[in-house]
Amino acid sequence: MNYRTFGKDKRKVSVLGFGCMRLPTTSGKTDGTVIEKEAKRMIRRGIDAGINYIDTAKVYHECRSESIVGNILKDGYREKVLIATKLPLWDIKNKNDADRIFDEQRRDLKTDHIDVYLLHNIQRAYWNIIQKNNLIEWGRKKKESGEISYFGFSFHDSYDFFVDVIDEYDGWDFCQLQYNYVCESVQAGRLGINYAAKRGLSIVIMEPLLGGCLANPLGKMAELFEWNQHEGRNYQPVDLALRWIWDQPELSVVLSGMSTYKQLEQNLNIASRKDYGKLNKEEHNFIMHLQRVYDNSLPIKCTKCRYCMPCPDGVDIPLNFELYNNHFVMTQMKKDAAINKIMYNSMPKNQKAVSCVKCGKCEKICPQKLPIRDYMKTIQSAFNS
Fold it and tell me: Residue ranges of the domains in the chain?
C-alpha cells in the first residue's frame, strides 16, 4: 500500500480509503440490506492489506453503516484505522442536536473519539444551519477536547461558495470533494483543489469512478478502450481513473465505495503499485479523448459558466443540470442512481427544478442557447418532485 500525508501533523494515510456507502447488499442497491458477513470480510481484508482510512456517515445504508462498521472494527481493528464520519446538517434543528447525534455516532461506532469528522454535504442551502447553530465553533471545541482529531467538511456546491467556506475558518484540517476525470470542472473541481491546497487543507476525494460508471464505460467510451486495445495499448478503466487522480500529489486519500471482493482486490492492486501515481503522456492524451466523448454523451450540454445565475426565483440551474446528467448516465448504465435523487431532494424547494416559473430570463443569456425551461420539466419528472 502506498501512503500520503493527512492533516497538519502529516499523519500517514493510505492513498486508498474504504468508503462505506456501497457495501455489499442483497438488493444490489445502497439500502439497508447489507450482507454483514461479506462486508466484514472485505473491510478487514482491506485493513490487513494496508488501508487505514474508513469513511462512513450516519445516513449511509439507511442509517446502518456506522453500526456495521463499529462491529467490523472489533478485535483490534479499530486501533489500526482512522474512522471518518459526518454530521448530517439537515437533521440539526437546535444546538443540542449536534451533541446528541455525535454521541449516537460514537456509540454505534463503538469508540470514544472520532478521528476524522465532517460537516456533511455543505452547500448554500445549509449554510444558515451552520451559522445559526455555531457548528464550526462546535467542531473546534470537539477537536480541542480530543473527541475529534481532524475537523473538515464534504462539499457539493459551486467553486465560489467553496472559497467562501474555506475562508470562513482558518482551522479546517481538510475537505472532501467529488472529483474524477469527467468531473474536473464540476462543483469545486480542479480550481477548488488548487485553492484548498494553497490554504493548507488536506484533500479527500469521493466518487473517483462516478458511482461505478467509469469502471464499466459504455457507448463511445467503451469503443475508445476497445480501439486502443487493438492498437496494443491495454488500458484498463479503473486503473486509469484511479491513477489519474493519484497523479495529482496534493490529494491525500481517494475513497472507493467497493461493493464486491473483486473490486476490493482490484483497487488494492492498483494502490500498491510503484507507479500508482504516474501517468505517461499517452495515457493523459487518452483520458482527454474520454473526457470529450463523455461530455458529448450528456443529455444537457451545460458548460457550468453560470451566466444564467442568479435565477430571480432562486432555482439553482447548473446544480439541477449536474444532478440530472449524473442520474441519466448512472441509469443508462444500470447503476444505483439514488444518490442524485437524495441530493436533489435535499435542496430547498425554491432551488429545485419544480420551482421554475418559466420566465425565460436564463435562456436569453445562456451562451449555449439551452432550452432551460424544457429541461426543468424533464428534471422535475425524473426526480418525481
Answer: 3-286, 317-383
Question: What is this structure's pTM?
Answer: 0.85
Q: What is the pLDDT of residue 201?
A: 98
Report whether pLDDT(305) > 80.
Answer: no
Q: Which runs of consecutive H residues, i.e. helices, occur in the chain?
A: 36-48, 60-63, 65-72, 95-109, 124-132, 135-145, 159-168, 189-198, 219-230, 237-246, 261-271, 281-297, 317-332, 338-345, 361-365, 372-383
Q: What's the CA gap between 330 and 30, in Å, rounded?
A: 14
Tell which residue, 57, 54, 71, 60, has the closest CA to residue 31: 60
What's the rounded Cα separation, in Å, for the pair 108 and 160? 36
Do 143 and 121 meet the contact criterion of CB atoms below 8 Å apart? Answer: no
Coil, strand or helix at 70? helix
CA angle 21, 25, 28 (to 5 degrees): 95
Please report, rounded to a whole number, the percentage of residues in the chain having pLDDT higher than 70: 99
Q: Using one digit for the tens of pLDDT, what is the confidence trace for 260-301?
A: 999 999 999 999 999 999 999 999 999 999 999 888 888 898
Least confident range from 171-175, 200-204, 361-365: namely: 361-365
Contact 165, 195 (CB under 8 A): no
Which CATH code of 3.90.1170.30, 3.40.50.720, 3.20.20.100, 3.90.660.10 fits the domain covering 3-286?
3.20.20.100
CA 293/CA 286 separation, integer angstroms: 11
pLDDT over threshold 60, residue 385: no
| DSSP classification of residue 15 | S
- Report the sign of the C-alpha dihedral through residues 12, 10, 98, 351, in that order: negative
- The residue written with cell numbers 446528541 in the block is 100
